[in-house]
Structures are given as structure tokens and as C-alpha cells.
């Protein structure tokens, strides 16, 4: 892998306000999308089966395509129909309490032994899971914020990391709304992983600029070479995971990989534009005040 020539990034040609403008505009747009989704649907992002409750039916439909399965069940209320794994297995999710009609259609078309399992989750249990997942994300973010504040003990470097991490979470959630990706436990895990990725690259940049020897840009470029290499490698790995899991209908992994790609891409923007602008202001102007 060739050396990343970060020295060509013309930071000196742009003011701090200009550097921060793009990530702040993206953050504002993402927040607007989430607010609109909340006003329209009552939730900031569409909730998956893990949080809404309902019934999932797994069955085998030999030599049938996904479109054929959808046509078969078009007359009944379903939330989603998708292929599972490598073979002829499918999964249908519904909010109906009585799934006898769906099961009968499947048995008549694909045989009496075609249904593998029927799993029901109550709406109350889904609501409890939703609350626990939300508390988990909040606790992780608050814990990260406290740790960052203790590490740097100054307002601007700390708030730079926290705002960048916040944007790294908000942007993927907004894109989930745009692309129709539902929030599942796997998606929550991906958002938690994004917090870790974000803090890693931001702290690396802050440490090099604030605690290492050398000029501002020398220290920044040194951190960028490591940070950008790590992030691009992670993005490449997630893109590969998305393509493979999508091609072979592996459950959850495509959505998790896509959310991580969104978050890591946002992290590149927020770390090396927003965080960089705040650190430069702090280094050249804030310290002297």
C-alpha cells in the first residue's frame, strides 16, 4: 500500500470557518431529516422487528424467487419478506397476531413441512428492548464524553472530539431514514462501534497536535497519515463485508456494514475538517486569549 500524501491537503488556503462549514451543514441536514422522520412516523428512524414486536416465519420455498414469494403473500399484511442464507430459505415478518392465513398459504404452495419456525415477540418486549438499546447508546456516548474531558482537561479540544462523534452517529441515522434501513439490534451495535472509531481518530489527531513536538501542520499531517490509513482500511473491509453478505443473503450483516461505511466516511469529514478547524483555532487563537 502506497504512502498517503496528506501534505497536499491545502489547509492554509482555507479559514477555520470555511473548514467547519461543510461538516456543520451536513450535520444540520442530517438533524433535519431525523426531525422530519420523527414528526411523520413518531420515531427518529424506522424500527425493525427487534423493537416493534410481531411474528417472524421462516420457511423453505424450493426453486422460488423472492418476487414469487412476495406475489404469493401479496394479499396478506406483511412487514418484510426476504431471502435468508444460501439456499431456498425465506423469512416473512408481520405485525399480525394471527398468522394462520400466512402459514396456510406457505404450506399449500411449498408443502406441509416447508415452515421451519414461527417466532413471536410481544410489542411490550420490543418496547423494553428499544429503551435498553437507547440507554446503551446514551451511556456509551456520555462515558466517552467524560473520558475525553478527563484526558484533555480543556474545553475546545474536548468539545471538538464530542461534536465530531455526535455527528458521526447522526449522519448514519439520517441516511438510514433516506435508504429505508430499519433500526435493529445489529444497527445499534454498528452505531456503538462508530463511537469507538470516531474517538480513536479524533484522539489521535488531538494528541499529535497538543502533546507531540513539532509545528501544527507537521503534527497534524503525521496524525492524518495514520488515521486516514486506518479509516480507509476499515471502510474497504466494510464494503467487502457488505458486498459478500448482500450477495449471499446473510442476515443483518449488509445493514451493519453499510451503517459503518456511512459512519466511517462521516468520521473522515468531521475529524479532518471540523475537528481540525477547532484545534487550529485553539492552537493559534484560543490559547493566547
DSSP strand tally: 4
Mean pLDDT: 90
Corresponding CATH superfamily of the largest domain: Multidrug efflux transporter AcrB transmembrane domain
Series of secondary-structure elements, N-terminal to C-terminal: HHEHEEHEHHHHH
Quaternary state of this entry equals: single chain
Task: Sketch the major β-sheet.
Answer: 4 strands, antiparallel
Rounded to an integer in angstroms, the radius of gyration calculated over CA atoms is 23 Å
Strand order of the largest sheet: 2-3-1-4
Taking pLDDT < 50 over at least 5 consecutive residues as the criterion, the unreliable ranges are none
Distance between the termini: 43 Å
Shape: elongated
List the helices and strands and how they pair.
Blueprint: H1 16-41, H2 49-52, E1 54-60, H3 66-72, E2 80-84, E3 89-94, H4 100-110, E4 115-121, H5 123-152, H6 155-179, H7 185-211, H8 216-247, H9 253-286
Antiparallel strand pairs: 1-3, 1-4, 2-3
